[in-house]
Every structure is written in C-alpha cells, then in structure tokens.
C-alpha cells in the first residue's frame, strides 16, 4: 500500500515532534506501507523568515521571497529524512520541482500547472520514503495541502494530514 502524509509546521515544531512524526512514518513502513511525506517549515519558521526579509527589504522581489521561504521547507524535509534514516529506514528529501510539481511562472501566488511524479514513483519503487518540501512558490509554502493533494491525486494514494 502507498500513502501520502502531510505534516504541518506545528507537528514538526521541535526535535521531539520531528522524531514522533518519523516514528509514525517508520511504524507504518514496518507494516509494509510506503509513503510520500510532504512537510511544511517548522513552527514559526516562515514568520521569522518573513520578518527577516522585511528587515532587509520591505519590498523584496517576489522571486527572491519564494526562494528564501522555500529554504524553511527544505530544512524540514532534510531533517525529516535524517530522522527517518536514524530509525533505520532509507529516505530522501526532494524539492517540489524535483518531485515533478510544475507551477506558473508567477512568484508569490503561482498555481500548480501539472504534477509529473516520475521521480517520486521511481523512489517508491526503490522503497525510499519521500520527504518533499512544499515551497516551489509562496502559495505552496502557505499550505502544504496545495502540494500534497495534487501529488495524492496524480499517484492515486490515500492522504492523511497531521
């Protein structure tokens, strides 16, 4: 069985919560369930990043804000992959683009145009868990469901939001 799980910032808010989420994922893996895991930036990370960006330039370019804010999701994805790995299960983090999520060129409010999950499906065939960040553009950073739901529909997997 395959499943998509989405972990929001609060559920990844500190090391103990990241470990708890990783345990939930690896417990399911031990039952033979393979998963695509979509993560948000850890609790308050995006707010802190927005404050820092505003302190540097109140009118920063939307493209640079997208690039900057996506770092929060990338950190969460890598941290989750490391936590899963520490529990003896292989995992790899991907950016949304690496996972095949294509958006409009508009920065700050882009919409998903298509999902081509070839890389995700290849990784699943190799029994890797997939931790991906949901921050290609701001709309994805603000709600991981905008990433998790299209991936779920494209690869037809059950979906759980945490």
CATH superfamily: Acetylglutamate kinase-like
- Uncertain spans: 132-149
Q: Tell me the overall shape.
A: flat
Instruction: State the CATH class.
Output: Alpha Beta
Major sheet description? 5 strands, parallel
Strand content: 15-25%
Mean pLDDT rating: 77
What does this structure look like?
There is one protein chain. With 162 residues, this protein is of the alpha/beta class. The protein has one domain (2-161): 3-Layer(aba) Sandwich (Carbamate kinase). The protein has helices at residues 15-30, 45-56, 62-86, 118-125, 138-142, 145-155, and strands at residues 2-7, 34-39, 91-94, 101-103, 112-115, 129-133, 159-161. The strands form two sheets. The protein has a five-stranded parallel beta sheet, with helices on both faces. Strands 4-5 form a two-stranded antiparallel ribbon. α1 packs across α3 (62-86) and α2 (45-56) packs antiparallel against α3 (62-86). The longest helix has 25 residues, at 62-86. The radius of gyration is 15 Å and the shape is flat. It starts with a strand and ends with a strand. Mean pLDDT is 77; it is low at 132-149.
Please summarize what this structure is.
48% of the residues lie in helices and 19% in strands. By secondary structure, the protein is of the alpha/beta class. The chain has a single domain, classed as 3-Layer(aba) Sandwich (Carbamate kinase), CATH 3.40.1160.10.
